[in-house]
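Bumping with the actual sequence this time:
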Amino acid sequence: MRERRANDEFRLLDNRRRAKSHKAERQNNEFKTQENERRAEALKISRENDGFKTEDNKRRAEAHKIERQSDEFKTQDNKRRAEAHKIERQSDEFKTQDNKRRAEAHKIERQNDEFKEEERRRNALRMYNSRDKYKNNFDAMKSNYESDIKEGPTHICSCCGGLWFAYSIREYTVEMLAKKGLKKEFIDTVCYLKHEIIELCATCRKDIMSNKIPNLALSNGLAFYEIPDCLKILIESEERLISPRIPFMVIRTLGFSKQFGLKGNLVNVPMNVDTNVSILPRSFSDTYTIQLKLMRQMKNKNAFMYETIRPKVVHTAVKYLVQQELYKDEGIVISNDWIKEYPNEKENFIVKNDDKKFNETENTGEDSDHDDNWNESDDKPINPVVTETLLNDEIEDQNDIGIKFAPGENNRPISILMDLKVDELTFPKIYCGKQRKIKENVKLTYAKIAKSELRMFDRRCGRVSKLFFTYKKLQTRKFVDAISINLRKTKNTKNVTVTQMLNRDYVNGLVHNDNAFAFLRFDRSSPAFWELKKKELMAMNRQLECATIFLTLSAAETQWSELLVILTKVLENKVITLEEAQNLSYEKRCELIRQDSVTCVRYFEHKLKCLWEILSAPCGPFQGYELVDKYVRTEFQVRGSPHVHALLWLKNAPKYDKNNPESIEKCVEFIDKLISVSSQPTEFSEVLISLQRHKHSHTCKQHVNGCIICRFGIPYFPMSKTMILEPFSDDEKLSKKERDEISKSRQNVKEELDRISKDKDTSLTFEEFLKKINMNEEQYIKMIRAGLKKAQVFLKRAPNETRINAYNPMIMSLHRANMDIQYILDPYACLKYCVEYINKSENGMSKLLREALNELKKGNHTVKERLRVIANKFLNSSEISAQEAVYHILSIPLSVSSRSTVFINTNRPENRISMLKSDEILQKLEPDSKDVFVEGLIDMYINRPDEMKDVCLADFASLYNVSKRKVDNAPIAENSDDEDVTENENNEKITAFKMKNGKGWIKKKTKKKIIRYRYFKLHQDPENYYREQLMLFLPWSNEEEDLLSINHEETFELHKDLIQEKRSEYVHREANEFEKAFEEHMEREDENDIEDTNIEYDQDKNEFLIYEIGNNEGDIFVEMGLKTQTEKVENFNVPKVIPDTEYQQMMRSLNNNQRRYTLNVMKLIKNGDKQFFHFINGGAGVGKSTLIKAIYQSILRFYNSLPGCNPETIRTALCAPTGKAAALIDGMTLH
């Protein structure tokens, strides 16, 4: 057989015969099974040979590779493998081993940088696609939003004890942390709160995973002591009697919901506890009570606090406190004489709650007595008698048995900054008479401790008196620092050395920055801060074009059931349903809101964050018009709650052009798509519409020409369709008769609208309304246009919708609170929103501070004295609500921008303000070093590397970041407001360039910053205008050679095309219209001299009704530990005479012709007594006002130099025909 199989032909036929026979045999299942077992056994024996095994695997792999080239086979094979793997992974042991094998294999693969980068790219792409899909699904986003807003700061971090939202918390067990390499002892230390499940916030988690104890860990000494029962039951006035410090503050209730507000400063006065308690009766039972009036001074008419107290409670509490270490260290002891009992001859008198009810007419001002019909608000008044406050509402004396006592009389106030234990001594109920003991190696500022206390799960520091105390202490600290920093700012002085700068006398002789108003910018509640924000916003409009939409969103705490559920859980540790929250009484809702302003603020910010995500999504309310940029400002209403004003820039939104019918049609279509005033919504209930329906109150009441009107112009005019109306053009001028007729018709229409608007259920149609006022639509439109000064949008509105504010249905259904939305027609309208809303609430304070500053300039005061006066004026006059105080303490931004802003100081070098380095830094430098000023933006530009030599200053400021280290993601050192929240740009592929002086690294951004600069005007100062254009938009290296020692106009003309091309990137084509609108606004403001009664700030001032409680003003110099005594001898300037330095500087600034003319006038006055008339003429900006002031000051100095002259005698008068002209020369109008 062997010989025959050697024949190839025979072997082939024999193999075929055998295969056919074998195939027939394998149809028998028994035979097939036995053969498979035999083959497997034989193969198993063969594979024990490593050589055979390798060859067999190789053969199999090759065969499988060929088979998998068939898509059908590949699909079936994958399916089979997946099914087999799924069955195998049901075994926990296999699953564990498989995961371990995969992790190990993945770890090895990730050692390859190429694989790592590819994996990162795939993950980013997957997340982007998933996110993009989510953002295009409104139902999914809405469902997620509704779920998110049910979350509140209710999760407790086991390390810092803070309350956090769910997204900030990660859950662990001890075993999980141990697997991450943390020791058991370390875990026990950092996890102060012991629970089976460890919850860690983001900040603590980051430090703990790095094996570090977080600074704010409770184990560092931040945990509160447990409050003993004898202190728990203390009310505010009882606590004041037993505390060694009393913080005099004016705290008032605001609006109907009775949230709290603070007026003025805090004065920290030491008290004698023994004296305080000794005034109480010496015989009392457990239930004995007595009325106590705490006075600031005994001569004052009204009490600082007036409450019913319990002597037994005070006695028990003080006995506990004097045994504590803090009271012993302070030497506080209590005499036992007052405890000795003797017969009590006084009758126990208890004030009923009804007798202490709040007098509702007290805070409404005199107008409320005469115009009761005006106020239509249906908010329920609340009786705040059960609240803790440092200044209760005054009531009339009811019985002579009560005690009247001034515990701080004749005691000198002490600095809250230098009083190191002031918190513990002021609030024994919070700190239990014990001092906070922070570990020595832990560096914590008071600001960080304050944040920790406010976020703590133990809500004891959320009480209003502690909240305002903390805010004032932080504010005072900031003022002290700001004054110190401001005194380091000086005009740019060349060639000064370290030795000179360390000489105090030399430094004091320098020309310091004298802008005492601007130094307040560090305080986010100051007018100076919002003045800066207004400038930044105007620069944003100048660079990006005018915004598209103005949006306002308010808070509705009492209407948000989700917030009430959260407050109940945080304050009462009680879980209620949304339905139960909706059924809470109005009084209970207000009480919850008053008790925890911190949670209210954090929830409002959380809700807005969730809402902005939808507003920015393609499927959101602006679908089709991408939200590309925004500016948001948070301000506070009269009732103390926050609301936000936002300017939004939408991509591809239509622009209004009154001369283009197609533009008008597109704008109207756009407005109708986004804005509604319908009273019959399909997406939400009448309850939400009621939030949009305006009700007159004292805050909207305005007196004009003897009539009372709504300052919001409500009721609005009904319209058959949305229209954009323009005022009459010059060609359409009306005759006097027509104007009189229209005025009369307008008055009749207003009266009719007032009647109709009170009936929200009226079914009157627009056509019926026109019949009622006896007009056709053409006459009606003509009447409306006659009252316009600028183009204005009038929304489609039925007669029963004349009081409904504009809203967007989608935003309203999500936010469920009052809102407003307006389409911005043109730069004039945009400017109105910038000016009236970004800085509106600070007008009154701004005026107060500027008046004080103007008074200071008339005297011979040092810069330090001016700063002191301005700081005290602000601190003693500012007003703030509890929720606003929370924003400041927790450092929550009050202004948010999609782009940061940078200021480029384009003044000449000698007029720039520079900051001196601190003495600590100067002492480390060489004595003859001239590197004494902090490096600024222009210094950085000069030191840019050669690779950036063609980059202009505008691009450098806008497109580049400067950091001290090359490390990616390093903190960026920008000359911009750290408050603006911008996009996170971390592009690792961007090259970092080293600065020439080696002091930092420069890295390019992907999104431009907004640039601000001096903005010289061509018609006012052509030389500086051209120099500024060259400085910003043309590259340069040496300022002296490239910018100062050249002919600016000729150089500008030479590079005009290049400069204008680059300028167009930073100055939009609408910028000129915007600037024109701003100049017109400033002219109107000067001419009208706006009265404070038309400003919301002053309209609402009665909500902070101030009682005469004596001198409650603080002094910033006391806090700084500086001398405050008045000098026996001081210099002063005679009336209207400016200081000699200013006069000399003014005379030096005159050109040759001005100087010769001034000398000629003085010669005429000195040498003759004849009357003469001169006429000074010239274009805008040539120096007429400066010349007049110089002559005026010269004349004053001449007459004051004459022997026997009385400086107060008026010898010279500056007059002008208009208020604006008079203001320019510091004169008076001709009356």
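The tokens above came from a reply further down the thread. The CA atoms of residues 629 and 649 lie 5 Å apart.
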